[in-house]
Design brief:
By secondary structure, the protein is of the alpha+beta class. The protein has 14 helices and 22 strands. Helix 10 packs antiparallel against helix 11 (393-405) and helix 12 crosses helix 14 (449-455).
């Protein structure tokens, strides 16, 4: 059922230059985490309730301003950029409700995944799967299709059972598989094009243990055994180090416990010193002296030793990422992964490119979300990265040419050059999404240049 909840007073509406929206503040230049996007909105709002969010959106509409919500800026694209009203969800945080009988938790849209994971753990609960970082807000993560890796369990958005959306006309729309199912199918990965998410209900389960097994393998061994490794493990991923034949693999599987996390010294050496501290130094050196990169890659690929540990899910799935980078990631049909990755490796070896960051490979089962990168097909993800400040056009363009030749779908929050014409062919339900957008936001209140490129206008 949709309910109008615009109960704010007139003071809550931005009506011209003299009146500020509820929770508004002086606009500043907004930049994303990677420094790839900057925009200066005309107005900012930090609503503390759904009513205040509705008032801010209605006020912006009256004043002819576009509206975009922004999370923590971990998207590499300009999906959240606006010159209109920038909505910051900093005060829309926390858990609204836990329904243990239904196995669900309802959380405010601005809640960081880090806080959600910690709060769920205190309640003896957990998400089934998650990505490898947890700095994003829940709404930002799901809107761009953030995912981890899983044989059976899919993206964070695929774990949603209901969500609350404030639409362009100021309605608060609650949707699920039973209530506004067409909106539910699309808004779980909605790109901010259908409205502003105010709350999300996730499916959760009693907390469990995961045993992580990390070990080096050769590129030929991993690609030769890829299907078996995916089939035999609940969560399998690996990193290949360009300019080498070396990979680092990670298998996460459920365990009866008990918890046996890495000891403090081992965790510091692997997760902070090697993966962040020395990796930062190595990338800075490689950016200054590209000829050193192949040697650095060989050393880096052998630095992390095999280890096995057991802990609760978010402490196994996620890890700190302190080295700033830029990223492109494409989902290809899982059956095409090995061929695609071998072509990428061959391209790098034939070229003068010097790539200091490893290539990340993950998988996801097919889901039923309209614009999910795994919509309707089992998928494998290939992510290419470069250290922040490194020229990226040549590498990313060559990689993208390979990915698109294999029916690749770009991650919505990571760098790519695809447009609506390409994406309409890549997604069988693309027209379903754009038709819904026409109905919910005919005046394009939530539009920006990125959405015009990827969805058309």
């Amino acid at each position: 059922m949709s309910t109008g909840t615009g109960r704010g007073t007139g003071a809550g509406r931005g009506t011209g230059a003299g009146t500020a929206a509820i929770g508004s503040r002086r606009p500043t230049t907004w930049r994303n985490w990677a420094g790839t996007v900057a925009s200066r909105p005309a107005r900012e709002a930090t609503p503390a309730s759904v009513d205040e969010l509705v008032a801010a959106i209605r006020g912006a509409r009256e004043d002819g301003l576009r509206v975009k919500p922004v999370g923590t800026g971990h998207s590499f694209t300009a999906a959240a950029a606006t010159d209109g009203l920038l909505v910051r969800p900093d005060l829309l945080t926390g858990i609204r409700n836990i329904d243990r009988a239904a196995g669900t938790v309802t959380v405010e849209a601005g809640t960081p995944l880090k806080r959600l994971n910690a709060a769920l753990a205190r309640e003896g609960l957990s998400l089934t799967n998650m990505g490898d970082i947890m700095e994003q807000t829940v709404s930002g993560a799901v809107s761009t299709g953030t995912h981890g890796t899983g044989r059976d369990s899919a993206s964070i958005a695929a774990q949603i059972t209901a969500l609350e959306l404030v639409t362009a006309d100021g309605r608060v729309l609650t949707c699920s598989k039973d209530e506004h199912p067409d909106v539910f199918a699309a808004a779980r990965v909605g790109l901010g094009a259908l409205g502003v998410i105010s709350a999300i209900t996730f499916s959760v389960e009693p907390i469990f243990f995961l045993m992580a097994r990390e070990e080096p393998m050769t590129f030929d061994q991993v690609t030769g055994e890829f299907d078996r490794l995916v089939t035999e493990n609940e969560h399998f991923e690996f990193y290949w180090f360009p300019h080498t034949g070396n990979c680092n693999t990670k298998r996460n599987n459920r365990s009866v416990g008990p918890a046996a996390p890495p000891n403090a010294i081992s965790a510091f050496v692997d997760d902070e010193l090697l993966s962040n501290g020395l990796f930062q130094v190595a990338n800075s050196l490689g950016r200054a002296l590209p000829a050193t990169i192949p040697t650095i890659a060989k050393l880096s690929s052998k630095a992390l030793s095999a280890r096995t540990y057991t802990d609760i899910p978010y402490k196994v799935f996620t890890s700190p990422r302190r080295v700033r980078f830029v990223e492109m990631e494409y989902a290809v049909p899982r059956a095409a992964l090995v061929e695609t990755l071998r072509e990428l490796k061959s391209m790098i070896e034939r070229s003068p490119l010097r790539v200091s960051f490893p290539v990340e490979v993950r998988t996801a089962p097919a889901d039923d979300i309209t614009l999910s990168t795994a919509s309707g097909r089992d998928s494998a993800y290939i992510a290419v990265h470069l250290y922040k400040g490194t020229p990226m056009r040549r590498y990313f363009s060559a990689a993208e040419e390979i990915f698109t030749a294999h029916e690749g779908r770009p991650h919505w929050g990571k760098l790519h050059t695809r447009d609506a014409a390409y994406l309409a062919k890549a997604y069988p339900r693309f027209g379903e999404f754009t038709a819904l957008r026409d109905r919910l936001d005919p005046d394009r209140l939530f539009a920006n240049p990125y959405l015009r490129r990827v969805l058309g206008d």
